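Two quick folds needed for the group meeting slides. Do the first one here.
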Amino acid sequence: MSASRTADGSVLRTGLSQFALSIAAFGTLAAGAVGAAFFFGDDDAGGPRIELALYSEQNGPPPLLKNRSSLEALDAHADGEPSLGVEYGDALPEDGGDGGAVMTVTEISTNAVNAPTALARAPISGYFERTAAGDLPKTGPDGRTPAEAYARPFAATPGMPRISLIVGGLGMTQKHTLAAINELPPEVTLSFVPYANDLQGWINRARAAGHEVLLELPMEAYDYPNVDSGPQTLLTSAKPEENLRRLNILMGKATGYFGVTNYQGARFATDAAAATPVMKALKDRGLLFLHDGAAARSVLPQAANQTGLDFTVADRIVDAELSADAIDRELLALEALAIQNGKAIGVGFAYPVTIEQFRIWAEGLKAKGYQLAPASASAGVETRAAKP
C-alpha cells in the first residue's frame, strides 16, 4: 500500500509540472504578441471607422430658403433646417474611446474645379452710375448693357444640347457660399441675397472664380408679412414710386450682376400694376429677369414683354424634394428637356446636398453629350467683352 501511494504521487507531480510548463510557454507567447501589437500595431484598426465629408467652414446661419421659408431661416438658432440624411450624435470622441468608433474627417477641397478665367472685377467703368442709393447699373457708352458686360462669355457647340444651373440663396451662410463658389464649375450661375453681409465681396469672389452672378429681388408672397422677405420687399400695396425706391436700394447694394431673379413673389407676380413699373426700370438699367418658375398665374412675362425687358423662366426647381435621389431625377428631367428644346435651365438652392449633386452631375455631363452653359447664355444674352 505504501509503494502504491508513492507511485501515484509521482505521476501527479509530473502532470502538474507539465501543466505549469505549458502555462508558462503560453504566457510567454501571449506576452510577445501583446508587445508586438503595442509597438507595431495600428490603434485606429481596433474599431469600426466612420468617414464624414465636411465643409471646412461652419460659420453662419442656414441658407436663405427661396419660396420655402421666411427670413426666420436666417436665424442661426432657428429650428427647421432641413435634414440632409445624416444624423449626428450629441458627442463623438475624438479618438474613438476604448473600443469605440474612430472618426475620420475628410475635408472637401477648397480648390476650384478647374482654373477658370476670372471675370472682370466689378464695377466695370462705364456700366454704372453713382446715386444716393448706391452704384446702379446702366448701359455703357458703347451701347453694351450691364447684362452683356457682366455675363460669362460662352461659345456654344453646334448641335449639342446645353443645360444651365443656378444656385440661389447665397451670401447668407459662409460655408455654403464658399462651397458653391469653389466646388462648382464656373459655368454654374450663382444668385445672391441682397441682405448678405459684404455682398460686394462675395460677388467679387464669385466672379474671380469665373461665375456670373444674379441679384435676388425680394417680392411679396401670398402670406406676407408672415413670410418676411425683408425690409425692401416689393409690394402690391405700395405705390409705384415706393417700389422703385426700394428697387434702387436693392440694386445699389452691389455691382457685377448681369440680371435679377425673384426671392418669393407669388403674389407680386400676379399684379400687373405693381410689376410693370419694376419691369420697365430693370429694362432701363440694361438687366434681364430670370424667374425661378415657382409662381402660378404669373403676369410677369406679359409685363416684361410690354416694357421690352428680357425675361426668362427656369424649367425646373431641382431640389424641391431635398434628397440626392430626388435631385438626380430632376437633373435627368433637365437632360430630357434639353434634348427636346435644345436648352434647359435648372434652379437649386444653397444646401450642401444640392451643391454636391450639382458637382457630381456636372463632372459627367460632357460625356453624355451635353454642354454646361451659364444661365445668361440660355437666356439669350450675347456677351461682348467689356474691359474693366
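Then this one, please, same format:
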Amino acid sequence: MEDNWQMVYSSEFLHKVEIVKALLEEYEIHGVVVNKKDSAYLFGEVELYVHSDNVLRARLIINREEL
C-alpha cells in the first residue's frame, strides 16, 4: 500500500470493519479493508485504511459513533 494511506480502525471481526467502512462511505470517505487474519488458525486483525487527507475526519466520525 502506498505511503499516503493510514489505518483508522481495526478489529478481529471482518463484519465490524465493513460496518465502519460503510459508515465512512456515507461521508464520502473511501476506505480499503486489509485482512491480516491467518486463514488456517483465524487469529490476527482486519484493518481499515483511508487516504491520509481523510484520517482526522474519519477518526472523528468513528469516535462520535462510539464503534
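Slide caption for protein two: DSSP finds two helices and three strands in the chain.
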